[in-house]
Amino acid sequence: MSKHGRILVAMSGGVDSSVASVMLHEQGYEVIGLTMKTWDYASSGSSSKETGCCSLDSINDARALAVAYGFPHYILDIRSEFGDFVIDNFVEEYLAGRTPNPCVLCNTHIKWEALLKRADKLDCEFIATGHYANIRLQSNGRYVISKGKDENKDQSYVLWGVSQQNLARTKFPLGSYAKAEIRQMAAEMGQLELANKSESYEICFVPENDYRSFLRHKVEDLDERVSGGNFVLTDGTVVGKHSGYPFYTIGQRKGLGIALGQPMFVTKIIPETNTVVLGTEDELHRSSAYVRNLNLVKYENIHEPLEAITKIRYKDAGTLSSIVQERDNMKIDFHHHVSGIAPGQSAVFYEGNDLLGGGFLM
Question: Is there a domain that residue 153 lies in?
């Protein structure tokens, strides 16, 4: 009988989840590995060789490691659920003039739910992933996510949507380690190829990171529907034609195909009229914002203004702000102007290293 009980570990075939599974195995857990097949290149309109977490090579790497350490490994095909929810939302958000955040949706609505459903069938008390984050139970009875030790790899930003119910059964074995330490552990395990495995920072289902081609594949008449719209200035002056509003994002400067004598940025997208508004860098600045689909982690509610660090994108350093809950939304008042607030992206709030919660920018 295992020392700590049975745990289901999400194994992508990469170094992080592989080391996490071995770490838990050596700690005395009865580990069961699970690799989720969420997508394939063929359905994404690409003829390129599959790479990354859902490729046959990655699945085989995960299985080989499980065999080497003597624990079971399963493959779970969730392409249908993933496509229906994450990919459909990705397309719908761009068509609505917003910039989607698919990793958050995948974690919240697909991976955690799929893992826990299978964990129940396999009598696993806990699930684990290779995310660089920490989790603890605090005195108010809530489970709190906090930043991982490695600031460059911290992944708490994409975990704001995980529910309290699901956090109660989640473990993050890598939270107190740096990436370099995890690679060294893999090397010491004799897994040199795994230790040197490269990482991908692209959206997993978008081949070559070309979301425009992906959208064209998913929406066959997209170019006919959106080409020929106007670039306008903030005062409404038409300054050129663009290739279609879904192909632009807030804050974009490069690839506009227009010269106005000074650097210009996308400041607003109006899908109803197929209009893309351009402005100077100063016109990108905002002093406040609202988020929807709010999920709070550390506290049950924040009905009084609370000082927090707000990150409006994954690699954002964060900005000191005051946040207060207004019904189902959160109002953010930034202490300093921020630039490039893109509706659809996540705004995530921190108190020190602790994740307060997050939501999607409106």
Answer: no
